[in-house]
């Protein structure tokens, strides 16, 4: 299968630059994965498509304000560091700019010296290992000095950083938001729970690899990035119980999907698990656990579009995307949503 098979035309003005005023007021395109039929709704209509005994699996990872703007030392020019993975001992794997000036031994300062850093290693993919020095608690320093690491296609300044967090975010560690969850409000979650739909939480810390387009012509040759994820015991038990009772396991976002599919047994049973996953889901994949998916609209030729196509079929998905473009849906992180069932 060719990567170009997952291309589509998207007018630039349909890339959402800001969140909707109300989280659940975004639009919702519902797609039947078997027939390809679709219908148009709003996200607050989602309970109409859920059934008592179903369970929603949500990713409770929280986005770090991981973008640091500072200066090179001594007396150098501007620099930018984007934290990706905590490697322990105050060392983080980072993307840095300008790369040519930030080789091993290069030093940087942020917040007038409140936080300093030194490049300790250049990795084969160009990322850097950076060691940080500071007083106090690193996450508190980051909250003061860091900015939200919005995707490169969002040019507008984010007015309220909580709008790039889900209302149920809890565990710090992501470099990007699990965006399908941005549409939920506490009230909508309570309504869903009250109708007999169970909520289960997993954690997958989203890396920036999620935004990288597939560069290989043959999609099977793409090397997937790794992300850390956790399935708690109570979530594993909930999934097993839901399946045994004939309910549907509905993932909120591709990150929740990748988490449970990474650790499911071949027979679809779940156990409490934790570790790194680089699962790559594209057409031909057999889903072991997930029955339905709440998701946003994804970039052309991306692994996320391939995952969605594995669930609903490439032709059905691309036809739904064409319809969304015709109907002027908003795309990507702050955009509208789909429910594929």
Structural overview:
The structure is a single chain. This protein has helices at 138-145, 186-194, 233-244, 254-263, 303-312, 314-326; strands spanning 27-31, 38-42, 55-59, 61-63, 67-73, 78-88, 91-97, 107-110, 115-122, 128-134, 171-174, 198-204, 227-231, 249-252, 273-277, 292-296, 337-340. With 341 residues, the chain is of the alpha/beta class. It has two domains: 3-63 and 160-340, QueA-like (3-Layer(aba) Sandwich), CATH 3.40.1780.10; 67-145, Beta Barrel (Thrombin, subunit H), CATH 2.40.10.240. The strands form three sheets. Strands 2-1-17-16-14-3-12-13-15 form a nine-stranded mixed beta sheet. A six-stranded antiparallel β-barrel has the order 5-6-7-10-9-8. A two-stranded parallel sheet has the order 4-11. β9 and β10 form a beta hairpin. α5 packs across α6 (314-326). The longest helix has 13 residues, at 314-326. It is globular. The mean pLDDT is 96.
Topology overview:
Layout: E1 27-31, E2 38-42, E3 55-59, E4 61-63, E5 67-73, E6 78-88, E7 91-97, E8 107-110, E9 115-122, E10 128-134, H1 138-145, E11 171-174, H2 186-194, E12 198-204, E13 227-231, H3 233-244, E14 249-252, H4 254-263, E15 273-277, E16 292-296, H5 303-312, H6 314-326, E17 337-340
Parallel strand pairs: 1-17, 3-12, 3-14, 4-11, 14-16
Antiparallel strand pairs: 1-2, 5-6, 5-8, 6-7, 7-10, 8-9, 9-10, 12-13, 13-15, 16-17
Helix pairs in contact: 5-6
């Amino acid at each position: 299968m060719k990567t170009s098979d997952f291309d589509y035309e998207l007018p630039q003005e349909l890339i959402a630059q800001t969140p909707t005023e109300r989280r659940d007021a975004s639009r919702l395109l519902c797609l039947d994965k078997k027939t390809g039929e679709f219908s148009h709704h709003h996200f607050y209509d989602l309970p109409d498509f859920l059934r008592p005994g179903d369970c929603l699996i949500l990713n409770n990872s929280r986005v770090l304000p991981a973008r640091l703007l500072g200066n090179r030392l001594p007396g150098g020019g501007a620099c930018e560091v984007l934290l990706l993975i905590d490697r322990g001992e105050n060392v983080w794997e980072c993307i840095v700019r300008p790369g040519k000036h930030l080789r091993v031994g290069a030093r940087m300062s942020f917040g007038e010296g409140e936080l300093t850093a030194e490049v300790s290693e250049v990795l084969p993919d160009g990322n850097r290992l950076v060691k940080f020095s500071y007083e106090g608690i690193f996450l508190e320093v980051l909250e003061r000095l860091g900015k939200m690491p919005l995707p490169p296609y969002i040019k507008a300044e984010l007015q309220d950083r909580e709008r790039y967090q889900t209302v149920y975010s809890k565990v710090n560690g992501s470099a990007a938001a699990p965006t399908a969850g941005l549409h939920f409000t506490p009230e909508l979650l309570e309504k869903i729970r009250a109708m007999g739909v169970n909520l289960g939480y997993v954690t997958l810390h989203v890396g920036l690899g999620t935004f990288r387009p597939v560069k290989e012509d043959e999609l099977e040759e793409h090397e997937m990035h790794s992300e850390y994820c956790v399935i708690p015991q109570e979530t594993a038990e909930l999934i097993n119980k839901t399946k045994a009772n004939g309910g549907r396991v509905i993932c909120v976002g591709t990150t929740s999907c990748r988490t449970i599919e990474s650790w499911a047994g071949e027979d679809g049973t779940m156990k409490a698990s934790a570790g790194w996953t680089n699962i790559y889901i594209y057409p031909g994949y057999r889903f072991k656990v997930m029955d339905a998916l709440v998701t946003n609209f994804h970039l052309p030729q991306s692994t996320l579009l391939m995952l969605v196509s594995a669930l609903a079929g490439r032709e059905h998905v691309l036809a739904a995307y064409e319809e969304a473009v015709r109907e002027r849906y908003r795309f990507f992180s702050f955009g509208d949503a789909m429910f594929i069932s």
